[in-house]
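Thread: "does anyone have the structure for this chain?"

Original post by V.I.:
We have the sequence but no experimental structure in hand. Need at least a predicted one for the grant figures.
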Amino acid sequence: MKETNENCLTEIEKYRIETEKYRSETEKYRAEAEKYRADTEKYRAEAETYRAEYEKHRDEAEEKRRAEAETYRAEYEKRRVEEEAAYKKRQADLDARFAAMSAEVAGIGKSNGMFAEDVYFRSLWRQKEFAGIHFDDVSDRFKSKITLPDGRKLEDEFDVVMTNAASVALVEVKYRAKAEDVKDLAETAAKNFRLLFPAYKDFKIYLGLGAMAFEKEAVAKAREYGIGLIKRVDDTIEYTADWEVKAY
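Reply from O.Q.:
Generated one for you, tokens below.
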């Protein structure tokens, strides 16, 4: 009987020890689970903060982009309206000048030049194309004067300037084009334009010469320099070079 009681006590003690061990492991797992839950909550909070910051930056960037786009649109619209008004005024002036001109206009030097400039500007403004390239804007108001680093003054004016996002076309207009006109255009126009208007210094520049008449030597020089020619045909103008126009 005594032996039986001792066996029972031994079993009870063994069961107590195992129970304590199980309780201890359960507490350990509970603590680990609580830590995991706390870590998860921390990561969730950090993720929420990151998401909020990302959305804030995204919204700010979007608002900035929208504001810049709106500013660009307003500036473009303002310039378009100004160019449209200038064109309409020039067209009205030109129409009035045509009505007053005599049939002998070809014999007047300076007036011939102004007449030719008006004709070519008006046509290019409508077409917005030169040498197979489309341009967004056409202007006859590019004139500037600067002082060079060596102290010399540089001043130039360009008859017709056509621009897009990557290219510029400089069109010189003469009543009768000569070889020296072509040479001067090739050697000075692109260089002077980049110095006077540095915003276009990295643009490709194409050169064109418009005239009511071309001397044979002028055509040969234009081919040599890769300059496009534009001639008047009735009341319109036509691009007339059968060679590739060079990008300066």
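V.I.: this helps a lot. The helical segments are 2-100, 109-127, 179-196, 216-225.
O.Q.: and The chain has two domains: 1-100, 109-239.
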